[in-house]
UniProtKB/TrEMBL annotation:
Domain of life from the UniProt record: Bacteria
Domain annotation RNA polymerase sigma factor 70 region 4 type: ranges: 93-145
Matching CDD domains: Sigma70_r4
Keywords: Sigma factor, Transcription, Transcription regulation
Transmembrane segments: none
Protein name: RNA polymerase sigma factor
Pfam families linked to this entry: Sigma70_r2 (PF04542), Sigma70_r4_2 (PF08281)
SUPFAM superfamilies given in the database record: Sigma2 domain of RNA polymerase sigma factors (SSF88946), Sigma3 and sigma4 domains of RNA polymerase sigma factors (SSF88659)
GO molecular function, one term: sigma factor activity
Family to which the UniProt record says this protein belongs: Belongs to the sigma-70 factor family. ECF subfamily.
Keyword Signal set for record: no
Biological classification of the source: Bacteria, Bacillati, Bacillota, Clostridia, Eubacteriales
Coiled coil: none
Length: 155
């Protein structure tokens, strides 16, 4: 893959990377830092990508590692006043709030599958989990969402 094509491909995936980072990091500035670091590392390590068809999976894996690094750094810092979050449209607010209440380990596979269209096999590869574990986490997450949303009469 040429440098120009690689650059075009990663730019085309930037929106996906922002959406994935949203499932892990609550603050906009942290999400922007994670995506920027991901793109920088991907560019520097572009020769390490063995097969072009795995570019998206490879980028998401780099991003998830960056998000975890930022999350760990923030945990060691003093807490901030209030995390900033962009308010979703009213129609999706309850679903968004319920989704953000899920533990990150349940939320990430759901976001990757339902919002980004990843198959379970690819999610397992990206998160370095067994497929059964991914399915189990998605099932538990969906059950929690269903319970919370039915309590709020959203379903």
């Amino acid at each position: 893959m040429t440098n120009e094509r690689f650059a075009q491909e990663i730019v085309a995936l930037t929106d996906t990377l922002y959406r994935v980072s949203y499932s892990i990091l609550p603050e906009k500035c942290d999400r922007e830092d994670a995506v920027q670091s991901c793109l920088e590392k991907a560019w520097k390590r572009r020769r390490a990508l063995r097969e072009e068809r795995y570019l998206k999976t490879w980028l998401v894996r780099i991003l998830i590692n960056e998000c975890y690094d930022i999350h760990r750094r923030r945990a060691r810092e003093a807490p901030r006043e209030l995390p900033e979050r962009a308010a979703p449209p009213d129609a999706d607010r309850e679903l968004h709030d319920a989704l953000m209440r899920l533990p990150e380990e349940l939320r990430t596979p759901i976001v990757l599958h339902y919002m980004e269209g990843y198959p379970v096999q690819e999610i397992a590869s990206v998160l370095r989990l067994a497929q059964g574990t991914v399915k189990s986490r998605m099932r538990r997450g969906r059950a929690m969402l269903k319970e919370w949303l039915s309590e709020e009469d959203v379903l």
